[in-house]
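We emphasize that the prediction below concerns an isolated chain of 408 residues; any contacts that depend on oligomerization or on bound cofactors are therefore not represented. The input was used exactly as deposited, without trimming of termini.
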Amino acid sequence: MTAPDTNFLPYGRQNIDDDDIAAVVDVLRSDFLTSGPIVEAFEAKLCQITGASETVSCSSATAALHIAALALGLGPGDWAVVPAITFLATANAIRYTGADVIFADVNPDSGLMTAATFQAAIDINSDKNIRAVLPVHLAGQPADPVGIAAIARGKGIKVIEDASHALGTSYMVGKGKEPHKVGSCTHADMTVFSFHAVKVIACGEGGAVTTRDPSLAKRLRLFRNHGMTRASEDFTNSELSSDDTGVINPWYYEMTEPGYNYRLTDIHAALGLSQLGKLDQFTDRRRQIVARYDERLAGLGACLHLIAHIPACQIGWHLYPVLIDFDTLGLSRAVVMSRLRRLGIGTQVHYIPVSDQPYYTQLYGKHDLSGAQAYYARVLSLPLFPAMKDSDVDRVIEALERVLGSAI
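Result of the prediction step, given as a token string:
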């Protein structure tokens, strides 16, 4: 087996310390390996961090997106608006319910759905029963929560924020610039987070939905756990639920509709809870790295541009994407990535427009989404993770200069 190259800089990497390992070991020595008190503590901590009143953790962000769609009752005949630039799961979660997807265009310089592209998607599909919109906070930047919510609420459309990239992000609202944390659900019905290994914090795999609506939280918990309830006030079969004296049978549960086994385990939650204690440390370091990139790359050349930064917000950066004009450069993206890799620099593309995936083109046909195509044609994610040193950032810049040469 080849030993890992310790000098290689991937586009993302988890940051695991001895205290994270100790937290997991403690659970392995405890009475609970599946969902238990550590899951509850993890959910409570997420409520504290985001300002939401309810958090429902899941085995993945994909599962979280799915139960969020189910909680709204989405199904055949319903439609949801999703930006074309996102990971597959944002759209797929809607399809799992039998509902359909409308792909919205994005800002070509940020990759984000905007209020204008959301409105355009509504206008083009005015004959459809649009019940939800899923703004994606790509790379950690907020996708106009205020503007999108204003349009959605005016039309009775529910908002599920896909904040898989945006734990630790906040945005300012109003003349007084009041801060709102992504996940507080001030401008959304539900917000979904991811705790995949390379996200802002890691559970290994894991996700969560935050909300301020107790009725949605109740449905989320049902769908997370087989659709099963042990709450006596929800029971409908009095003959089976209680004994002859009317006392509820201690083993009894009911299922009124099917759910899923989407629970987070205490093992994963222990890692996540430990990592949440370092969230500020992680996001602060990510911001420092982004600032160093921005300073070094600004004005580097005509072929390389920074993505458009959203003003009046504090971003919990997950990715560091840049925009490269590969046509003018005279090098393909694949060649650039390959040459950077040979210099020890890992890169990635976030993302291929979901609307171009064969499943969706067969289902809905081709889409003319010029913003998404322009963003995809130029985007390349550079390494970003908290353990990077300033010298690592400089190494990436030097490798870029070497690969792109005089063209930049």
